[in-house]
From TrEMBL:
InterPro entries registered for this protein in UniProt: WD40/YVTN_repeat-like_dom_sf, WD40_repeat_dom_sf
Top-rank lineage group of the source organism: Eukaryota
Pfam families registered for this protein in UniProt: CC_Cfap43
Entry similarity comment: Belongs to the CFAP43 family.
Origin organism lineage: Eukaryota, Metazoa, Chordata, Craniata, Vertebrata
Record's protein name: Cilia- and flagella-associated protein 43
Coiled coil: 688-715, 760-821, 1004-1056, 1095-1133
Subcellular location: Cytoplasm, Cytoskeleton, Cilium axoneme
Main location: cytoplasm
Keyword Coiled coil: yes
Length: 1339
């Protein structure tokens, strides 16, 4: 159970509230002697808009209207098929609405609950009825401050309202009256407030912030807010000792909080907020100053002469990359700053130099550690930088040397951009063939110690004595096991004799620098918190600070025994270093004290910004200085770069002017050339890009265009691939998987379209299931026949039925085309028998009661649908083949028709039938060339190849034609044919004689005779032409008539097939309707079964609950009887003590006995503490009910008061002291017994109330069980009714039932459907019995 808050009711410990981010539950605690019973009730929360959702009872939903056709409406859990505990709370996704999310709650003196929500509303929950009320907020003018309640983090009750803290750091006061409340700002803090708690007197309020700070607010005429604990702002990011490391140390958090602490008691001495995200911290050995690196690339220098109030004295903006490393050399001469972009800046560490930046050098980007060696005996400082080469799996070491006189000669050591010259600082590169997590340089500068990253080893590497160029590969010289796991870090002590290692395991080891053996070891942190992050050691070596990585702890270590050679060497080096640095420290500290404070919001002076009115910026083409009034802080490295550029600009200004002039002349020439280019012909015109003089830019643009083209081509290819894949899926699903492809068939002349039934091949499982059902039906039929032959008695009705069957048997055999069924068509519910489908194995619709029968019927109906579709598809295939034949025959005849039309020169268009795409759908899957609208892309080599082939073919053809003399002669003499065909008569023409060109008067007799012969030939030819033309026209008409008749006959056939298709579709719909009705009845049966299973499970659960309650009642009664017996015994003992008093003191006089009896009945008065009136007005809960501890305290106070009554001063006069002592003992026993009787009486009342509650729960559970039984009975009746009330499908002919007046009975709830054959058989039996009776009477 995920809970955020738990609280007891202050006025009644029997109530407990638990709340989470989504639920609120109230628990009731009941006690019976030593047994406690917990019972929870879940609170119904309102919706996000403050309204309430009316939830219906899921277990026993209200009765829904019953559908007269589709049966009862089941609950949603039954429809979902849930039968377990999840059905009790099931709600569909569409019925889920977002509720309010509680955050905190508090109790009121009236035992009510106030609940704050994440969305803002405040809820009030009645403690008895658990009814939720959404309190309305009294809106006023919005305040001008930043406070705005979003969600209360904590709630505490006060009189007339509550105090709530929000995530905005403001404590609000809610004044609640009736069902509304008013919000006012009470207190305001810098961080969110997480906890609020009142003191018992309600005069003080304890407040805890998210950061961990604790405040106390004291109420009164002049309220006060006191800070009890000021916590640090997050985990420590960096630590270091303040020189010399014997009194103070500093810590740094990520948010910029710098704190100074005392070493003795680890108490905080002072702090300062930098108000910026920071990374690292380092303290200077040569002055009481410290430096802090930021994420923004700045370094802040702090003055810590006054540890109670450290201050910022200088700020330098080095670069825009975060500062990762800050390292002082051992003498405090230089500060080395490593950034994330791979630059190491060298800064003068003396405050008197205003922390001058001396230069920078470039190293690897991933800097892991910076190590220095600065000894008093030498005048140089050696620096080693370790960086990682992740791509090669190696580590790089870069070592360079700085002279102590560098501040005086800094300009000679750097170039114009501030970069230190490698040849002057003697920079050497080394690489290690494996990765190191840490490395340090020993004080002799001839050896490097490295901590291996991947393996648990510590290695030493000897540096070469001679100088080298390039990269030198270092080999391990000494190798020992680190006895750490995980990557670690190295640190050298100030005297260089100790090598300290830390790692992820959380163990700190102090080793000898020469042997690498561990002589001190300490586990300061746990490996579960990822071990140690940082370590710092003081100058004298006596103090060590260890900071955890993720556990949020800082450990201060000190030697238990500090002596011997190691201690003496450390102290000797410490004293020698202090003496050598004392004068420098005094001077620098005096300068620090005199340096004014620097504002954190402003940058430093000349090193941070450029002059106020000028900003250097370089134009990409002209490199001109542009003034800019808008001032922006510029990093030092960028300033140096701009100053170098400015100097170069001034140096080469004359040369720049000459280049500019030449560029202008060249640009003018190019423009003239472009103007001339526009005037020339198109064939001679150059492209505009060819005038570009920047060849590199042209090449770049060309590469970019090629990249863009390749990118577009790739996207198009991927798009085409996706489309192809989708097309393949669609083709596989809708075409390849179809055993019968869907296609249509159109008429030639009529607008009829007939479609077949697309069908998939039946799976093996379906065929196996069908085979099983068919076999089962055949077995049932044979069993029924055998049962009738063996058991059935030949009744008169059966004889009459057999006689009728024998009379009609011959007619049925003659007209029988398909196998008859024992069901009539109107009871069969479909016309499937018209398609030759066997329906004899189908069960009657009136006999489908069981689930198995319905499933078998569905399988048989699906088989019938498949057969009906198959039968029609066969007819469709026959018609399709017929159309193919008709189309082929028409095409064959159209060849002759086309020839006749050409011979007769009619100019008519021949009708050519064909198939559409719907008739041949496979053509849709093939893309023809004419469908492609885009121009086909042909490669140059393909064009050349095609041209060469065409040229060769033309040459070959001309060559063959030129050598074929016979063909040329035939074409010239006889028109290319050897014999004249009959079809050529219409084209024959008799040539005119040549003399007809002369006038008739000039003709000779011979020519006149030739003319007469010519006219005769022309007349004969025309007669032949007319005769042949008439024959062609008759043949044309005959062919057209034949085509028309054949296509018309096919259209008539297709028209009949269309009617057949409509009937087949009707049969399929009829069978599918029957299947849907059966499927719905199966679903309804499943819902009823699920509901019944759920009710049985729920009944079992309630019966188990009742058994548990019965056992609890039995045990409670037994305990009550035992407890009552004890109570009666105590009560009897009390009465015995009262009655036997006078017998106990019968030896003394009677008047003394009476006095003692009065004292025996006397009880001391317990004086209650007077409650202060002010406290009564403040404390909201007043007097709370007593608890067990309070009763014990009251009894102890009573016994203390009895001591006063037992005093000798209260003894009657003349009474023996021994008798008085005996009397006191007897009275004390009586008082103790009375207290026991009171306690037993209170316990007895609790046990009786507990028993009464259990009896009420038992009665409630019994009522629920009876309700479940009633629901089960109704459900079983409904289930039986659904199994008997069948939905059947009956065929009625159109117009069979016609009524003049529409007066029909639509309610058939009490009607029964009976088979007509049963009535007819009964009528036949009645007629036979009547006939027999008539014959008997007449006889």
């Amino acid at each position: 159970m995920d809970m955020n808050q738990m609280s007891f009711n202050p006025m009644n410990w029997h109530q407990l509230c638990l709340s989470s981010s989504s639920t609120v539950s109230v628990w009731t605690i009941e006690r019976s002697n030593q047994e406690h019973h917990f019972k929870s009730k879940l609170i119904q929360l309102p919706l996000e808009d403050g309204t309430f959702f009316n939830e219906t009872d899921v277990i026993f939903p209200p009765s829904l209207p019953k559908d007269p056709i589709y049966g009862p409406v089941m609950p949603l859990s039954a429809i979902a098929g849930l039968v377990g505990e999840e059905a009790e709370t099931f709600r569909p996704k569409d019925d889920l609405y977002p509720l309010l999310h509680p955050t905190m709650h508090c109790w009121t003196p009236a035992s009510d609950l106030y609940v704050g929500c994440e969305e803002g509303p405040l809820l009030m929950i009645n403690g008895e009825t658990l009814k939720v009320t959404v309190l309305s907020k009294i809106e006023e003018a919005p305040p001008m401050d930043r406070g705005n309640l979003i969600s209360p983090v904590t709630l505490v009750y006060q009189k007339e309202g509550v105090l709530a803290s929000g995530i905005d750091g403001i404590v609000y006061s809610f004044t609640i009256k009736d069902s509304s409340y008013k919000v006012e700002n009470f207190l305001e803090f810098e961080q969110p407030v997480e906890h609020l708690i009142f003191s018992p007197s309600y005069k003080m309020l304890l407040i805890q912030t998210e950061k961990g700070s604790v405040y106390i607010y004291t109420f009164g005429e002049e309220p006060t807010l006191d800070k009890v604990l000021d916590a640090c702002d997050g985990n420590f990011q960096a630590i270091d000792f303040i020189t010399p490391g014997t009194k103070h140390f500093m810590t740094l958090t990520h948010s910029g909080e710098v704190c100074v602490w005392w070493i003795e008691d680890c108490a905080r001495a002072g702090k300062i907020y930098l108000n910026t995200p920071v990374t690292v911290l380092a303290c200077s050995p040569s002055s009481l100053s410290a430096v802090v690196g930021t994420v923004g690339g700045s370094v802040h220098f702090l003055d810590v002469n006054d540890v109670e109030s450290p201050r910022v004295v200088h700020k330098t903006f080095l670069s825009e990359s975060p500062v990762q490393h800050l390292v002082y050399d051992q003498r405090g001469m230089y500060l080395f700053v490593g950034t994330s972009e791979g630059n190491v800046f060298v800064i003068n560490a003396k405050p008197s130099s205003s922390f001058q930046i001396l230069g920078f050098t470039e190293v690897g980007k991933d800097i892991l550690q910076i190590s220095t060696v600065s000894l008093l005996e030498i005048d140089i400082v050696e620096v080693m930088v370790l960086s990682s080469l992740a791509e090669t799996g190696r580590s790089r070491l870069e070592i360079f040397t700085l002279p102590t006189i560098l501040p005086q000669v800094a300009e000679t050591f750097t170039d114009e951009r501030g970069r230190l010259r490698d040849e002057l600082i003697h920079k050497y590169l080394y690489e290690v063939e494996h990765t190191l997590s840490s490395a340090v340089l020993d004080f002799q500068s001839n050896q490097i110690y490295g901590f291996c990253d991947q393996v648990p080893y510590i290695c030493s590497y000897l540096l070469p004595e001679e100088e080298h160029s390039g990269v030198y590969i270092l080999k391990p010289h000494q190798k020992v096991q680190s006895r750490h796991y995980g990557p670690g870090m190295f640190y050298l002590s100030s005297h260089g004799w100790w090598l300290i290692t830390i790692a992820k395991c959380g163990i700190l080891c102090v080793r000898d620098v020469y042997t690498l053996e561990t002589f001190a070891r300490c586990r300061s942190h746990s490996h579960q918190g990822h071990g140690i992050q940082l370590m710092r050691i003081s100058m004298d070596g006596q103090s060590i600070l260890v900071n955890g990585r993720d556990d949020g702890t800082l450990v201060y270590l000190k030697w238990k025994l500090f002596g011997g050679n190691l201690a003496s060497e450390a102290l000797k080096h410490y004293q020698h270093l202090l003496i050598s640095l004392s004068s420098t420290m005094n001077e620098e500290n005096e300068y620090l004290i005199a340096t004014p404070r620097v504002s954190l919001d402003l940058g430093s002076e000349a090193e941070h910004t450029t002059p106020q009115n000028v900003k250097l910026s370089i134009d990409s083409s002209l490199e001109e200085l542009v003034p800019d009034d808008a001032m922006k802080e510029i990093p030092w490295i960028q300033q140096k770069s701009q100053q170098a550029i400015e100097k170069e600009v001034k140096l080469f200004s004359q040369k720049r002017k000459e280049i500019k002039n030449r560029i202008k002349v060249l640009a003018k020439t190019v423009l003239n050339m472009m103007e001339e280019n526009e005037k020339v012909d198109k064939i001679a015109k150059l492209e505009q890009q060819e005038f570009g003089l920047d060849l590199e830019e042209l090449e770049r643009l060309k590469d970019e265009s090629e990249k863009e083209v390749s990118k577009i081509r790739k996207n198009v290819e991927m798009h085409n691939l996706a489309k192809s894949y989708l097309a393949e899926l669609i083709k596989e699903e809708c075409w390849n998987s179809m055993a019968v492809k869907g296609r249509a068939l159109k008429c030639f002349h009529l607008p009829y379209v007939v479609e077949n039934f697309p069908m998939k091949e039946r799976t093996d499982e379906e065929l196996k299931e069908l085979k099983r059902v068919l076999q089962q039906k055949k077995i049932e039929t044979e069993c029924l026949k055998l049962r009738r032959e063996i058991v059935e008695v030949q009744s008169p009705a059966v004889l009459v039925k057999q006689r009728h069957e024998e009379d009609d048997e011959e007619e049925e055999d003659e007209n029988k085309t398909v196998k008859n069924t024992n069901l009539l068509n109107y009871l069969l519910g479909s016309l499937s028998t018209d398609f030759g489908v066997d329906t004899s194995l189908l069960s009657s619709q009136l006999e489908l009661h069981s689930r198995e029968e319905k499933i078998n019927q569905i399988i048989l109906l699906k088989d019938i649908i498949y057969k009906v579709k198959t039968a029609f598809n066969n007819e469709f295939d026959a018609a399709y083949k017929q159309k193919e034949f008709e189309v082929a025959r028409v095409k064959e005849r159209n060849v002759r028709v086309q020839e006749i039309i050409l011979d007769l020169d009619l100019g008519e268009k021949v009708w050519q039938p064909g198939f559409d795409d719907s008739e041949k759908p496979e053509r849709t899957l093939v893309v023809e060339s004419w469908e492609i609208k885009a121009r086909r892309h042909v490669n140059p080599w393909q064009k050349a190849k095609t041209g060469l082939i065409v040229t060769r073919e033309m040459e070959r053809w001309f060559q063959s034609k030129s050598t074929d003399m016979r063909f040329r002669a035939l074409m010239d003499m006889m028109g290319g044919v050897l014999d004249v065909k009959k079809e050529d008569i219409l084209r024959m023409v008799i040539p005119q004689p040549d003399f007809m060109a002369k006038p008739d008067a000039l003709w000779t007799e011979e020519e006149r005779k030739q003319f007469k012969d010519y006219e005769k030939k022309v007349k004969d030819l025309n007669e032949e032409k007319d005769k042949y033309r008439k024959s062609l026209e008759a043949e044309l008409k005959k062919l057209q008539t034949s085509i028309q008749e054949s296509t018309q006959n096919f259209d008539d056939y297709l028209k009949r097939l269309f009617e057949r298709r409509v009937k087949a579709e009707m049969v399929v719909n009829q069978e599918e309707l029957k299947i849907n009705n059966l499927v719905f009845s199966l679903l309804l049966n499943e819902e009823l079964s699920s509901r019944e299973s759920f009710l049985n499970n729920y009944l079992t659960k309630k019966q188990e609950e009742k058994n548990q309650i019965s056992e609890a009642i039995q045990k409670s009664r037994e305990d009550l009887d035992v407890y009552r017996e004890h109570y009666d015994n105590l009560l009897a003992e009390d009465k015995v003590l009262d009655r036997s008093f006078k017998k106990e003191f019968s030896e003394i006089p009677g008047h003394q006995v009476d006095i003692l009896y009065k004292l025996f009945k006397r009880r001391p008065r317990i004086h209650k503490q007077k409650v202060n009136l002010d406290t009564t007005n403040i404390v909201p809960f007043g007097e709370r009910p007593g608890s067990g501890k309070l009763n014990k305290d009251n009894f102890a106070q009573l016994m203390k008061a009895m001591d006063e009554l037992d005093n000798v001063n209260n003894m009657p006069e003349g009474l023996d002291p021994l008798i008085w002592d005996h009397f006191c003992i007897t009275r004390r026993a009586k008082v103790e017994n009375e207290q026991k009787v009171k306690q037993k009486a209170a316990g007895l009342m609790e046990m009786m109330a507990f028993l009464r509650k259990r009896v009420e729960e038992d009665e409630q559970v019994q009522q629920e069980i009876e309700k479940v039984f009633q629901e089960l009975v109704l459900l079983q009746e409904e289930k039986a009714r659904c199994q008997l009330d069948l939905t059947i499908q009956i065929l009625l002919k159109q117009g069979q039932v016609e009524l003049e007046n529409f007066q029909l009975t639509l309610e058939y709830s009490d009607a029964i459907l009976i088979n007509k054959n049963i009535i007819e058989d009964l009528n036949a039996v009645i007629r036979i019995q009547v006939s027999n009776l008539y014959h008997v009477r007449s006889a």
